[in-house]
Amino acid sequence: MESIRLISINPDVNIGGKQRFTLIAGPCAIENERMCLETAETLQSICRELSIQLVFKSSFDKANRSSILAPRGVGLQEGLRILEKVKNDLGLPIVTDVHEAWQCKTVAEVADMLQIPAFLSRQTDLLVAAAETNRVVNVKKGQFMAPWDMKNVIKKMEEAGNEKLLLCERGSSFGYNNLIVDMTGLVEMRSYGYPVVFDATHAVQKPGGQGTSTGGNREMVPPLMRAALAIGVDGIFAEVHPDPDRAFSDGPNQLHLHQVKSILAKAIEIDDIVKQ
Q1: Considering the domain boundaries, does residue 1 fall inside one?
Q2: Counting C-beta atoms within 10 Å of the first and last residue's C-beta, which end of the chain has fewer, N or C?
Q3: Is there a domain that residue 173 lies in?
Q4: Using CB atoms within 10 A of its CB, is residue 220 exposed (0-12), middle (13-18) or buried (19+)?
């Protein structure tokens, strides 16, 4: 296997090296405190049983929405309060999206990891501001970018003094309202030496596929997840919701919380073979 650096997200959770994949998971958007806490607690219990390291993810704002009428979340202040409660009550590391450079410093006061959305992965000021927080930064490869274009992202981060970087694949644009995943791109990005995360739920999106909202096909999440783990990725990103069909956003591609355990149990069988 390639020599992949091990990156510490907090004192108890790492990603990379030759260890079992790390899971980054949670509801797409923060809808309320209770749902976030209950989802995080369930995910934590599942991951403890399966010996998977967990980073909890949810977004305080979904700035990229198909419709101006679509719900976006609870906002920065309330979102960080809820994420901090999850972090303190459960002891889980936290990751959330940042959309503008000015948000990075504030978000880094709570989050252990900052996430750059795919559509913003070429925004130099945002990447530099995230790097300067000295937090781990998960950069999602833009749907419009080739895998080798991520070398420029790496250079921007390194020049800003931060090598705590994850590269995330979430599919590439393929005609109207459709994405495909090029598994060879995972191999290419891993060759750069940084941990690679596969975003299994956004990879099955159909952007704008329902007119005023995004469609998707969650049934394709488990096979794509297993395929990426067969390549040898270091992390799996999955949006998970107790009732996806009623979610604020990304309902069609989010996983049902009650199905996550069985999906992960099969996933680690593949990962164990590859990582041995």
Answers
A1: no
A2: C
A3: yes
A4: middle
Distance between CA atoms of 214 and 247, rounded to whole angstroms? 12
**Tell me, what CATH number does 202's domain have?**
3.20.20.70
Flag whether 269 is in a domain: yes
Q: Is the dihedral of CA 267, 202, 38, 61 positive or negative?
A: positive
Quick one: tokens of 101?
A: 């450079």
Note the pLDDT of residue 211: 47
241 is a domain residue:
yes
Q: Is the pLDDT of residue 208 over 90?
A: no
What total of structural domains would you count in the chain? Answer: 1
What's at 186, amino acid-wise?
A: L
- Give the residue numbers spanning the domain of 33: 6-275
